[in-house]
Design goal:
- The structure is a single chain.
- The chain is mainly α and 141 residues long.
- Among the domains are: 7-49, no CATH class; 57-100, no CATH class.
- The protein contains 6 helices and 2 strands; from the N terminus they run E-E-H-H-H-H-H-H.
- It has helices at 32-49, 57-67, 71-78, 80-100, 104-118, 124-140, and strands spanning 7-8, 15-16.
- A two-stranded antiparallel ribbon has the order 1-2.
- The radius of gyration is 27 Å and the shape is flat.
Length: 141
């Protein structure tokens, strides 16, 4: 089998040699960011070509679950290893989301601090003290 010719990645622009078994189908280099972009594009285009695929699925699933009561409970009892793996994965996803989730006020406060830091010659503590003094003056006056 002859060696595949190098291709240029449409996302990062670097040259790469496609995997020999996927020469015809490989669209991007092996970098994670490029693969992620290619996958997102592929999924979006598939969804555009098949807009009705996920519509109405809930009704079918609900009907099936009504016809098979207790299925999930029995499955979980019969597959405790799978349940434990799912629970661990769910916990990891939850922690990952929690790390990026912040209170709205905290986010506003961080952005204000970043703006203050961007101005050269300003002292963050002094600026905050002025704001607090202003709030106290309004409340007491």
């Amino acid at each position: 089998m002859k060696r595949p010719t190098p291709k240029r990645c449409p996302y990062c622009g670097c040259q790469y040699t496609p995997y020999i078994r996927a020469v015809k189908t490989q669209k991007s280099c092996g970098k994670a960011a490029c693969r992620k972009k290619q996958k997102r594009e592929s999924q979006t285009s598939w969804l555009e070509r098949n807009p009705e695929y996920f519509r109405g699925r809930y009704i079918k699933v609900k009907r099936w679950r009504d016809a098979h009561p207790g299925y999930q409970r029995k499955y979980r009892a019969a597959n405790p290893d799978q349940v434990a793996r799912d629970n661990r994965a769910r916990l990891v996803r939850w922690h990952k989301r929690k790390r990026f989730r912040t209170e709205i006020q905290d986010g506003l406060f961080r952005r204000r601090i970043a703006r203050i830091r961007a101005i050269k010659g300003t002292d963050i503590q002094e600026t905050l003290n002025l704001k607090v003094d202003g709030i106290i003056a309004v409340m007491s006056g």
